[in-house]
TrEMBL record:
GO terms for molecular function: D-serine ammonia-lyase activity. CDD domains: PLPDE_III_DSD_D-TA_like_2. Residues 23-210 form the Alanine racemase N-terminal domain. It comes from Geodermatophilus aquaeductus. It comes from the Bacteria. This is D-serine deaminase, pyridoxal phosphate-dependent. GO terms for biological process: D-serine catabolic process. It holds the Pfam family Ala_racemase_N.
Length: 399
């Protein structure tokens, strides 16, 4: 048994899997490395990659982290509400048309002052006005979403994710004027998330040619975006002053921090270091979040079966979205079955040393999605468990 497996098995011997363990030593080391890479720029924590209020509080208590980037308005209200909010500065990373959540926002001046909505169209302003007309509600803070993808060949080539329709400085300025001309709205910030850099590994293991190609495209994209983002910030600032300009992600912190137009960064996945973030040249995070499944069958020599296992990450279907068995290390998923809903067979040299009742430890492809499957993260410091913190699911929420 490897020391890592021995440590995990011994610490959780009295618990029944499935279970998830959060290594706080690794979490803290990853947080420190993120702030180092940010070069003094504050990091807004992407909550979708954390999904535990206790972990968010721990990270936000560290120097270098400030504010939350939420993924739904309902989540933002939960994090910003009450007498002891997780954060008094929560930006919703995506536009919302959740009328119930919007009603809660405009009914509470304190929440309206703490939460900023994302918009990329006047339609999103209309959604707010349909819930409560101006004059009958507090001002609603908004942030403009500038599309950061690389477009070429007259738009026939698109590198990046499909986000905002606002792509050029003129479009950003036009939307800014619309916001400022609308009663009941306050323009607070601008965001431009370069997913093609922050979320695409530039040194994928075993694929050196792909790494070269990715690095070339990313360099081109960053040069283009630096010019366009600076022009967009200038154009919007001529309409109204901006409190913040947000950019970046775990995979691009130091490169985005070098852009003088950006005032703050965003990151979250690097705190847990899932497998999709193993292939970057700029950093090597420590896996902080693992989950265990029990061995329930030994169907053949060299093969074991664990209960459950279908903890598959979102995104384009592919092998890189599957959970990876890491302790013991010499196991692999079967191509004909993959990670199953009720059982997952594993094959490899380490299978014959496993017995029914033993556990196999996995890493997830994405960060926060582990928390969709467990109610708590058991916290590990040194060689001992120190307790457990609830996930969103454990607190009765699934945003």
């Amino acid at each position: 048994m490897t020391p890592a497996r021995t440590r995990l098995d011994a610490a959780t011997a009295d618990l029944d899997p499935p279970l998830a363990v959060l290594d706080l030593d690794a979490l803290d080391a990853n947080a420190a490395d993120l702030t180092r890479r940010a070069g003094g720029r504050p990091i807004r924590v992407a909550s979708k990659s954390v999904r535990s209020r206790a972990v968010l509080r721990r990270v936000l208590a560290r120097p270098g982290f400030a504010g939350v980037l939420a993924y739904t308005l309902a989540e933002a209200l939960w994090l910003a509400g009450g007498d002891d909010p997780v954060s008094g500065d929560v930006v919703v990373g995506y536009p919302t048309v959740d009328r119930t959540a919007l009603r809660r926002l405009v009914a509470d001046p304190a929440l309206a002052a703490r939460v900023t909505l994302m918009v990329d169209s006047p339609d999103h302003l209309d959604a707010v006005d349909a819930v409560a007309r101006p004059g009958r509600r507090p001002p609603v803070r908004v942030c403009l979403d500038l599309d950061a993808s690389l477009r070429a060949a007259g738009g026939r080539v698109h590198v990046g994710v499909r986000r905002s329709p606002v792509h050029d400085p003129a479009g950003a300025a036009a939307l800014a004027r619309t916001v400022c001309d609308r009663r009941g709205f306050t323009l607070a910030g601008l965001m431009a998330y370069e997913a093609q850099v922050a979320g695409v590994p530039d040194a994928p293991p075993g694929r050196p040619l792909r790494g070269l190609a990715v690095r070339g495209v990313q360099a081109l994209s960053l040069r283009e975006l630096a010019r366009r983002r600076a022009a967009a910030v200038a154009a919007v600032s001529a309409v109204a002053p901006l409190e913040f300009v947000n950019g970046g992600g775990t995979g691009s912190l130091e490169r985005t921090a070098a852009d003088p137009a950006v005032t703050e960064l965003a990151a979250g996945s690097g705190l847990y270091q899932p497998t999709l973030f193993d292939g970057y040249r700029a950093f090597r995070g420590r896996p902080a979040l693992l989950f265990a499944l029990p061995v329930t069958r030994r169907p053949a020599p060299g093969t074991v079966t664990v209960a459950g296992g279908g903890w598959i990450a979102s995104g384009p279907p592919g092998a890189d979205r599957l959970p990876r068995p890491v302790h013991p290390p010499r196991l692999r998923l079967l191509g004909t079955e993959g990670a199953g809903e009720v059982q997952t067979p594993l094959r490899g040299p380490d299978a014959d040393a496993l017995r029914v009742g033993d556990r196999v430890w996995f890493r997830h492809a994405k960060a926060g999605e582990v928390c969709e499957h467990v109610d708590a993260l058991h916290t590990l410091e040194g060689n001992a468990l120190t307790g457990a913190v609830p996930t969103y699911r454990g607190e009765g929420h699934a945003f």
